[in-house]
Design brief:
431 residues; mainly beta; Jelly Rolls; six-stranded antiparallel beta sheet; 41% strand
Length: 431
């Protein structure tokens, strides 16, 4: 009796390690630049060269406001142009007020216009706004209340104001993850069935040929948080609730990061409550320091040229269950890491790239060499043999070859089963 066998019966899959190498740091550069702009003004001001001045002797609310229209946490630098007019119009020890987006005052910076050179630029403020609610908004002063009397000249009371120029460094985070969980236990427990430093997580993209691998009975999936600079976090009781939503438990986030030439960034990490973080299988940070962004700061962490992986584990006691990860310059935490690529503002991607897909070659099938996909083979032998080669081209290591039989006769938590002999040269026998 002839037996019809389809070449589709052998459908291997591969699980896709990075080699740590030298690193380098990119040039520090602002992410935001307002350009030169005029402030909005209250009250009566008169022309003062290319700018304006006013009397500072009347308490009537007159003053300028410089608003670049920004809303983020990061570095904020404000430069002001010295008005090109008589020095008697310059104010002494002018207090500039810096405001957060919620309307509260972040702080003040004082600049004395005495002796400033007309049409020259002076840096009034240059600070890192670290708090979780420290979102950059605007700068202003009041001519009467914020200027010392007498001003730069005896018995004279006036103040000038010029154009402003704002520079900003908006801190970027990993906003794209593959998540897994939640598991009951403490931060040191591990119910995934895998060694944590070896974990690679893959979102389910196509389940028509079986399901993704499970980890202790749980399936991972992709979560895009939105910008984590201030409005969002990786939240296992919010945007990632499908992979957590529990107390006294822990969950994971996994992402890929790319550096064209290698890098040595600091990792700034926030977690509610406990966290452990691995890069390329090496533990770089752990502990409890709830609950703001950036509470943990590593030293410079070496990343090779090419792709690196990060595994972020957070344990929740009760209440909030979230975390954030940001990459900063290895020599100065106030700056983003310029040598790691950002994708739409995210330092990480929660999915693999197309050219990482594993390669499989079926050299022989049921006695025929170089079989073609979807071909049918006939014979009277009920034992089917197949062999070939397998390899990978991306950063994920070769693990093993498996086969898929449309689910027939395979038990367990997936539709895949091992081939008889796995490896870069593999073979399988099926009766």
């Amino acid at each position: 009796m002839l037996t019809k066998v389809s070449a589709r019966h052998v459908f291997p899959t591969l699980c896709l390690v990075c080699v740590l190498s030298a690193c380098w740091s990119g040039v520090l550069a602002y992410t935001h630049d307002s350009g030169e702009f005029d402030p909005s003004i209250n009250g009566a001001w008169y022309s003062c060269g290319n700018d304006k001045a006013t009397s500072a002797g009347t308490n009537d609310g007159r003053g300028p406001t410089w608003d670049p229209g920004w809303d983020f946490r990061g570095i904020f630098r404000f430069d002001e142009r010295c008005a090109n007019c008589a020095d008697t119009n310059h104010g002494k020890n002018v207090v500039h007020h810096l405001y957060r987006r919620d309307g509260s005052q972040w702080g003040t910076r004082t600049w004395s216009q005495c002796g400033c050179s007309g049409n020259s630029w002076y840096t009034v403020a240059n600070d890192a706004w670290w708090g979780d609610s420290d979102r950059v908004w605007r700068v202003k002063f009041d001519a009467y209340n914020d200027t010392a009397y007498p001003n730069c000249y005896t018995n004279y009371n006036a103040v000038s104001m010029g154009k402003g120029h704002c520079y900003g460094e908006k801190w970027d985070y990993i906003n794209d993850w593959v998540c897994l969980g939640g598991y009951s236990g403490t931060i040191n427990d591990n119910a995934t069935g895998w060694t944590e430093s070896d974990i690679y997580l893959y979102p389910a993209v196509d389940t028509s040929h079986g399901n993704v691998f499970t980890y202790g009975g749980k399936v991972p999936g992709r979560v895009q948080t939105g910008d984590c600079n201030w409005a969002n976090k990786l939240d296992w009781k919010g945007n990632a609730a499908s992979y957590g939503n529990c107390d006294n438990c822990y969950s994971y986030g996994f992402a890929w990061m790319y550096s064209p030439g290698g890098a040595g960034p600091k990792f700034l990490i926030g977690a509610d409550d406990d966290q452990k973080t691995w890069v390329n299988g090496t533990l770089i940070s752990s502990g409890t320091n709830c609950c703001n962004r950036d509470n943990f700061e590593t030293g410079s962490i070496s990343m090779p040229a090419g792709w690196s992986r990060i595994l972020f584990k957070v344990r929740n006691g009760s209440g909030g269950f979230n975390g954030t990860v940001s990459l900063r310059n290895g020599g100065d935490r106030n700056w983003n890491e310029g040598s790691v690529t950002r994708y739409n503002g995210s330092y990480g991607l929660g999915y693999e790239q197309d050219d990482w897909y594993p390669r499989i070659d079926v050299a022989s099938f049921y006695g025929s060499s170089n079989p073609q996909p979807n071909a049918n083979f006939y014979g009277n032998d009920t034992t089917v043999t197949a062999s070939g080669t397998a390899w990978v081209t991306g950063p994920v290591p070769f693990w093993k070859v498996m086969h898929f039989e449309w689910g027939y006769g395979i038990s367990g938590d997936t539709n895949y089963a091992d081939v008889t002999s796995s490896g870069t040269n593999w073979s399988h026998t099926q009766t």
